[in-house]
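Dear colleague,

Thank you for sharing your sequence with our group. We've completed the structure prediction you requested, and as agreed, I am returning the results in plain text so they can be pasted directly into your records. Please verify that the sequence below matches your submission; if there's any discrepancy, let me know and we will rerun it promptly.
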Amino acid sequence: QLLTANDHLKLRFHSLRTKMCLKTVQGPALGGPLSKMMVLDAGSAGNLLVFATGEKLGVALCPLDGNPNRHIAIIAHANPVTALVRSCDGKYVFTAAGNDSSVNRWAVHPEVLHATWKLGGEGVAPFIAQLDGGEQSECYKEMEDYFYYMQIRQTEFTQNAAWQISDRMAVKDIPDLMRAIGFFPSDQQAEEMMTEIRFQNHPASSTLVETIDLETFIKLYINHRPVHGVSPQKLAATFSALSPRGHVPALELLHLLKTGSEKMTDDEITRHICVLLGEDEENISRELALQVDAQRFATRFLGFA
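Please find the predicted structure tokens below.
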């Protein structure tokens, strides 16, 4: 497999044969994307991922799963790290940075990282802790409720049969549940999430997994959701990329939605605009005659304060 890191702080595993994304996990959120990384064989302690981000040097336990307790980092230089190599015996890591004219040697102690991981908790608990409010949050309670609603929706009831509550739901319902709790993946992201679950036992088993339990869904949500929400600055940059003036006619924006990589139909666009604006189809025509900029899009369409 090929491991890549992107500027959304995600680590992605790809098949070398098909180039398909097999798994996405939350990467270290230490102020910026990873700039350097390599695998270090730590002998009986297993493999480690050594990485650099900005002026920091970090180590993560493999296999990578998105648990924030499985990595640690320290400030290695005053400037961003520009070079990262390991010793032949796997006991040391060497770093260099920019113009400070220094090379540092770092001893690697996997047992410290293992102790940090055990103290931080295993299983699903560290992932639930990343929700705002943790296990007592509204998000977690909604996630539980919607998880079982999905089971009800896919169950065929008969008059005399008792319904047994299951701890699993269908993989095909993952995108709908993600959207219900406020994460709106693209079609490609939704397909990658379902593929990740279906092929989680590959190549040990050729059987595809078609159901998912709540704990696995929580991990999937934490690993795939954006680390940072949509900010006013990001919206402004997006509209500046669409037009140097920073605003575009609403009809032109609709044209982009209908001709982009994930095209929307006229009916889909109309239905979504009606939902976002809380208006009937007859009353949205005046909105389509206006110019749309980042501020108007955020307040009128997304409902930001």
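Summary note from our side: The chain has a mean pLDDT of 87.

Kind regards,
the structure core
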